[in-house]
Amino acid sequence: MVHIVIDGYNYINRVRSSPVLDSASLEMLRGALLEKLARYKRRQGNRITVVFDAQESRWPSRHRESHKGIDVVYSKEHETADDVIIGWVREKPAGIVVVSSDRAIIDEAKRAGVPFMTPPKMEEAMASCKEYDKDEEEESVTASTKRGNPRKLPKKLRKAARSLHKIKS
């Protein structure tokens, strides 16, 4: 099974056309991202972890929670989401696909031979996953007609992962 690791705030800032200006809208955008990923996870079945920087952290260590099957990790005090993701890439690269446009994360993923994609590419992959954001009512109707392996990544994401395995620094 593929484990998709997403740099949360990097993702939010890359798929939006305007910058996030206040913490209230940031919290709303964080919730919207987690909802979108939860719908995608229901369709695809992959493990998804979103890592956020814990701004003004109240926790001396990493804080974990779950949102509808999505693992959410907040970095600890004096640690960034980049540090967390780079640490995971170095520790256990097998099965991980990293989603970020941060140069340090991408460079580390290349060194470790870990496939990566940018947030806009992940958006495309989610959009190409047919009907991932339909209502529950429509979901029951289309479930009987949907074909293919529901635990398999979309074709575009599989193709990206195969090509990324070839990239070596």
What descriptive keywords fit this protein?
single chain; 169 residues; alpha/beta; Rossmann fold; six-stranded mixed sheet; 7 helices; 47% helix; globular; NYN domain-containing protein
List the helices and strands and how they pair.
Layout: E1 3-7, H1 8-15, H2 23-44, E2 47-52, E3 63-67, E4 70-74, H3 81-91, E5 96-99, H4 103-112, E6 116-117, H5 119-128, H6 136-143, H7 155-165
Short description:
The protein is α/β, with parallel strands linked by helices and 169 residues long. It is 47% helix and 16% strand. This is NYN domain-containing protein.
Describe this structure in words.
The protein has a six-stranded mixed β-sheet with strand order 3-4-2-1-5-6, with helices on both faces. Helix 3 (81-91) packs parallel to helix 4. A hairpin with a 2-residue loop joins strand 3 and strand 4 (70-74). With 169 residues, the chain is an alpha/beta fold. It has seven helices and six strands, in the order βααβββαβαβααα. The protein has a single domain (3-165), classed as Rossmann fold (3-Layer(aba) Sandwich), CATH 3.40.50. The protein has helices at 8-15, 23-44, 81-91, 103-112, 119-128, 136-143, 155-165; strands at 3-7, 47-52, 63-67, 70-74, 96-99, 116-117. The two termini are 25 Å apart. Mean pLDDT is 79; it is low at 132-142.
